[in-house]
Amino acid sequence: MNINEEQTSRFVVRTTSDSHFAWIRTRLSLERTLMSWVRTSVALIGFGFTIVQFFQRLHEMAGVASAVRPQAPRHLGLALIGAGLLSLTVSTWQYRQVVHYLWSREFKPLAGLESRPKERLFMQVPLMAVTVSVIVIGLFAFGAVLLRVV
What we know:
mainly alpha
């Protein structure tokens, strides 16, 4: 390695078996982290939608006094659904950035492949298909609550 390459590279990458398995562990750690974000986002979206539905049905029941702030559950539900969507979108962006970094020129030899597979976003990892599906469902739930469809 000459001096110019040494100055432009942040790390000295040694292609050994322990480095290869560390790369794999890092990649799998990213998958687990994104799965945790998906789980958290599903909980936020589901809980927000449930709050809106519960208080809407409660208000329609006979013998129940009207609420002081009848729009508060709807606003809280929208906030929770929005928080779920925002957290999932940001975590997906972060996931894609780190995966791109792991496939950078200096770390490619550690992957054990000649080049990064040319795959679509959905086919890269099944988790990405689930993530995009949850985002679409969250957008539907947010729109339904916002427009009072359900």
